[in-house]
Design goal:
Chain A is mostly helical and 279 residues long. Chain A contains 14 helices and no strands. Chain A has one domain: ABC transporter involved in vitamin B12 uptake, BtuC, CATH 1.10.3470.10. The radius of gyration of chain B is 19 Å and the shape is globular. With 290 residues, chain B is of the alpha/beta class. Classes of the chains: A mainly alpha (279), B alpha/beta (290).
Chain lengths: 279, 290
């Protein structure tokens, strides 16, 4: 235990992992309750295009991915809000396109072998001191935004129409939420990887949803599951020498199934089915 | 504001959705103190009418005024407007406590970045007391019965201290006793000065409580009032039973069981909300569509 903590790379990974676990969980609560899981998956695949673009242009790949993911997220929002197609169709179109762009760009980089596996699946060794700073700064930004817009985000998640009637700009808050998802995805890719980050957003929140019917408790439980999975997952991945992202996500998945098995919601839903509409 | 000015005014309002006309050339007014029922067959545009008043839907032509202002530029007047949506539009498995739902009624007033104050919580608590759900404050909404949920959503609207209340089929899916006590409550609020506009499918509710009935007609081919698509009648005393029933269920509606239309109307006026299996009061909707 102490031995793990004495390695600088492991300290960095654990700090970054805890921050990531927390912000993925918080943002995930809104994603799960609004039914936007596919948006999270879509934006994370767009990060691949952003990372590739960063390498080609000689920029910091994480910062390039931030810009690219924000643009993709708001692109999804714009298409969905204009009502031309549904949100999930907009994601379906854009996430394949941005991923394809990334693959194309990587193919053009002759002789330059990037550690793509690390970006795709996450790696403890990949977290540089600079990454810890970027992760922490973006993490604070995401949590502060959620804190400041707490009631607005809750309102548009629970009842967007009523939020609009009350004079809140439901559309703008929706774009803020998309921006938060994009930042969360990018912050997480070094540790969890592009392919798996959407699971770290959805799974802890989904586990928390099984165990409580109070919004604030759901956020607290999701953070507990998210940080727990990230920290314990990183340690296991060190001991077993497994991919960190995969280990973290599988651990979160185990917690989800445990929560689902213990869920008080399950028995009530069963009851509701039998009492029908007259409940 | 002058008491004699209409609270809601619509002039030649036409609303289209995906190139289809939903409301055509609608003109009507709601005076302060009204208890107005909006009736019409499924798909006639009742919800659209409410959404147009709320500013959620922008008309293709015509003018809408609420408290003398356009719905999207109401400023502070917005807080005088309360809305109870159709309960089916909200996810009842959402993890949230009843008191937090009611507190949302204050969010528009509180303003961006701010937290609810003690005064906001107090207003929410009073609203819950007013509709008799103060004891349910700490319960998650998924634990509430249909009637209790409706009262919680009514409390949310009241938390904002409105003078105009819009309700979209507030008792859909709620059992008869709960429906009756809900309308008794609305009627009491109306007695305290609340101008109320509600969409209903229930002949009994309309007959017993409304003091005005706004008919939204079905598609043109079967229009009862070809000139416009909304006609406001007087209360149940003044309007002919046939007119209202034809408007609610379409002109081809037939009555099942014994009795005439006017007997049904008389009975409905005494009873209020209808019991579904009561064959005396059953009306067949031959023109049912979507």
């Amino acid at each position: 235990m102490a031995e793990i903590l004495s390695y600088a790379f492991m300290q960095r990974a654990l700090v970054a992992g805890a921050v990531i676990g927390a912000i993925c969980a918080v943002v995930g609560v809104y994603v799960v309750l609004r039914g936007m899981s596919f948006v999270g998956a879509g934006i994370s695949h767009a990060a691949f295009g952003g990372v590739a673009l960063g390498f080609i242009l000689g920029l910091n790949p994480v910062l390039a991915a931030v810009l690219f993911c924000l643009l993709t997220a708001w692109g999804i929002g714009l298409i969905a809000r204009k009502g031309q197609v549904k949100e999930d169709t907009a994601v379906g179109v854009l996430f394949a396109a941005t991923m394809a762009l990334g693959i194309l760009l990587i193919g053009l980089m002759h002789g330059y072998r990037v550690d793509l596996f690390g970006y795709l699946f996450g790696s403890i060794l990949a977290v540089t001191p600079q990454d810890v700073w970027i992760t922490s700064a973006l993490g604070v930004l995401v949590l502060a935004t959620v804190g400041l817009l707490f009631k607005e985000l809750l309102f548009i998640t629970f009842d967007p129409e009523m939020a609009q009637v009350s004079g809140l700009s439901a559309g703008r808050i929706y774009f803020v939420l998309l921006g938060l998802i994009a930042l969360t995805v990018v912050v997480s890719i070094k540790v969890v990887g592009i392919v798996l980050v959407s699971a770290l957003i959805v799974t802890p929140a989904a586990a928390a949803y099984q165990l409580t019917e109070d919004f604030r408790k759901m956020i607290a439980l999701a953070v507990l599951f998210g940080v727990g999975a990230a920290v314990v997952g990183l340690m296991i991945s060190y001991w077993l020498n497994t991919a960190s992202g995969a280990t973290i996500v599988l651990l979160a998945t185990v917690s989800f199934f445990l929560a689902a098995a213990l869920s008080p919601r399950r028995s009530r839903r069963h009851l509701a089915k039998h009492t029908g509409r007259l409940s | 504001m002058n008491d004699l000015q209409p609270v809601v005014e619509m002039e030649n309002v036409t609303v289209t959705y995906q190139q289809q006309i939903v409301l055509e050339d609608v003109s009507f007014q709601v005076m302060p103190g009204s208890f107005l029922a909006i009736v019409g067959p499924n798909g006639a545009g009742k919800t659209t009418l409410l959404k147009t008043i709320l500013g959620l839907t922008v008309p293709a032509s015509g003018t809408v005024r609420v408290f003398g202002r356009p719905p999207r530029g109401m400023g502070e007047e917005r807080h005088r407007l309360g809305y109870v949506p159709q309960i089916s539009t909200v996810d009842m498995a959402f993890p949230i406590l009843a008191r937090d739902v009611v507190l949302m009624g204050r969010y528009g007033r509180i303003g961006l970045f701010r937290r609810p104050s003690a005064a906001d919580r107090e207003a929410a608590r009073r609203a819950m007391e007013r509709v008799g759900v103060a004891d349910l404050a700490d319960r998650p909404i998924s634990h509430l019965s249909g009637g209790q949920r409706q009262r919680v959503f009514l409390a949310r609207a009241l938390a904002n201290e409105p003078v105009l209340l819009l309700l979209d089929e507030p008792t859909a899916g709620v059992d008869m006793a709960a429906s009756e006590s809900f309308y008794d409550l609305l009627y009491r609020l109306h007695g305290e000065g609340m101008t109320t506009l509600f969409v209903s499918h229930d002949v009994g509710v309309v007959a017993k409580y409304a003091d005005g009935i706004a008919c939204i007609n079905p598609a043109h081919g079967r229009a009862i009032h070809p000139a416009g698509r909304v006609v406001v009648h007087g209360g149940p005393d003044e309007v002919e039973a046939e007119t209202v029933l034809a408007c609610m269920y379409g002109p081809q509606a037939i009555l099942l069981g014994q009795g005439s239309v006017s007997e049904l109307w008389g009975l409905a006026r005494q009873r209020g909300p209808l019991a579904a299996p009561d064959h005396e009061l059953e009306v067949s909707d031959e023109t049912a569509h979507g």
